[in-house]
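[Automated response] Your request has been received and processed.

Submitted sequence:
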Amino acid sequence: MILLCVLRKSVVRMLPFIAQLRQPIIRAIVYLSGRLFMQTLDEVSVSAPATKSGLRLLLLPLVILAGMGLSVEAGLLGPLGVQVGHLWATLSIFGVGSAILFLLLLFAGPQKGPALTDLPRWQLIGGFLGPMYVVVLTLATPHIGIAMTMIAILSGQVGKSVLIDHFGWFGATRKKVNAERWLALGVIVVALVLIARG
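Generated structure:
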């Protein structure tokens, strides 16, 4: 707790300096992220493992429950962001998550596979996208509501996932976009419009 207070005071003292650097830093982050993403598309040659139908039936309800968890997270983050600030709310969420993962790693034992330093850099993009997602969630939820926020996120996720499947990016099994997928994406967009008007 004391460390958190000291860290917060240090950040507050640095805010004027950070504000001056904000625009160039954001531009640099966006530029480097774009370069890294384009490099990713050239480097990826990992093939996705085949999934059995029984495993799919088990995973689908788990994914639906995880999606419900995201809605609960959005509901919690909105008020938390208003009370302590959006970046502090994001930091608290990732701090708790990191602590839980650390405890799980202690009991999981050694992991098989290459060292973190041996992995391609593009595989760490998620570390940048995760906090960005939570900050946007924290900012948007109090203003547009949980349902609207989650439908908007869902439309972005489905739209991007259709492209990832279609082009086989990030080692995903390539699946061409058919009429059914376009229809599903259209239904999500219609739901977004109806919720926005309601």
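Summary generated for your ticket: The radius of gyration is 20 Å. Helices lie at 2-43, 53-84, 86-108, 126-144, 146-167, 179-197.
If you did not submit this request, please reply to this message.
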